[in-house]
UniProtKB/TrEMBL annotation:
Pfam families: WS_DGAT_C (PF06974), WS_DGAT_cat (PF03007). It is found in: Cell membrane; Endoplasmic reticulum. Its main location: membrane. Residues 156-318 form the O-acyltransferase WSD1-like N-terminal domain. One of its GO terms (cellular component) is endoplasmic reticulum membrane. GO terms for molecular function: diacylglycerol O-acyltransferase activity; long-chain-alcohol O-fatty-acyltransferase activity. GO terms for biological process: triglyceride biosynthetic process. It is a single-pass membrane protein. This is WSD1. The lineage of its organism: Eukaryota, Viridiplantae, Streptophyta, Embryophyta, Tracheophyta. It comes from the Eukaryota. The keyword Lyase does not apply.
Amino acid sequence: MYIEVAEVATSNVYKGGHRQRYFKFSHQFHLRSDLCMWADRIQVMDLKLQMNVPKGGQEIEEEGQPVSPVSQCFKSPLFSLCVHVIFELQESVTDIPKYMNAVAESIMSTNPLYSCIMKKDDRGSWRWKKTKVNTDDITFVAELPPGQESYDAWVDDYISKLSLTPLDQSRPLWEIHFLNYKTSKAAATMVIKLHHSLGDGVSFMATLFSMARRVDNPEFPPTFPTAHKHRVKPSWPGMAVANFFQKLWYMMLLVWYSVVDLIRTTLRLMDWLDDSQLPIRGPPGVEYTPVALSSATFLLEDIKQIKNSVGGTVNDVITGIIFYGIQRYLQIHLSAVGEHSLQDAYEKRLEQPKDTVIKQIKNSRLTAICMMNMRPLAGLQNIEEMLKPKGKVPWGNRVGFLCLLVPMMGKLENPLEFLKRTKRVIDRNKISLATYINYRLGKWLARKKGPQALSKCLYNTIVHTTMVVSNMIGPMEKIAMAGNPVNNFTFFVSGVPQALGVFIVSYMGSVVLQVHAHKDYVDAHMLCKCFVEASKEMKNYTLNPNPIEDGNSESV
């Protein structure tokens, strides 16, 4: 089993103010011919299609397109969310300005919103107004100290600090940052930062992957996994009666679970229901504190092997790995309080924790907010389909949330049993209509009471939970951005008022867990080690229900 943990330390990168972090090269370099060909393809795109916008399929007029209430909600005084997409490139770039300009022009060609700023009109309403975009204002090249043996820590620190830097409101709400420094994972790194008011993860990924081409066949766009069709069940005498009672029972559960979940949501909004104060939970305002990034990579084949042993789905297994790893981390952290350092407690992680630690974890409440795509069709869609007027997969913020109550077992003796409990929690939430109802109520509230009312409700819900989980499906083949092959890509969301976020992507048969954690509350690198060990334990139990622990873990 190939499992890799990307571990980096943090250190100081910058001197002076925020904007001094960026350095623009003025030298001219020669660019490969494949980049030129790629840029030419962009210029011959259908101009009429380029002017489509998510609302009504109309061009953005001079007075501006109204900003949707949900988009205004994500850019409010309470919280401002940004999506960061990180591309680890296989080759370094010689002509960096030309490369970045080509990427920027391609992004702007997909949707006119990328060439707009958010501005209030005479009546005080927010509108998207077209502006002349100078790519030098939205593209930045990092200047890091020369002669370093490794740039892993520097690149990690740059991206971490970038997540805390607000976007310039006088410019389009997105930026491209390029770090032409070799790390253990890439020859260069490109970070695209986009404000959530422009769209959701599905919208952004559709934009970025519309620029990508397969490395094995550049003439074709990348392909993505599709959902498997359910098998047709064989019929048998009396099946109609059985189906009737089965559907009746299902409807009873649907009503009951929906009512319970809606009551829980109401209690959170009224500050009557809250998660336990565990070490991985931060106070309000934690989103403004320093962060650290780390990642763990797993083979999709190993995930499927575990999936087959419990009869679940890939998402069930990944969620189980995250929840199991978090409880392993909590055992380590709580065992370290008052007696050991965190590292010493990690070295003794295979020892049975004290009864007080087990009891504290078992009696705790830990809720994870899982972001969901609320479009009728699942998965990534073609960018042209998303921009069609009244399409089934419209552009914009079509995102809901599912509150998963993490099963807290205290003793972690059988990882597969924990995985089965996690699967039962997920299956129970799939029956509930609370996510759909909350999504509709949120849109109604934003229209009737304004975006600030929706922002307050979302903020109160988030601060009473512990962590956020989001996932995105990536291409099945290796892709190239502007002719430069991509070794890997990840994403995370900043501005969430929580100390921990885990963001999942699949790419080329691998699954990557990207951890975005605030340093004062979560050790991101140790948490990724716990994810690795959780996966190893689950796989070992699929091969042998009673494995002998050797204390070793595969990590780098």
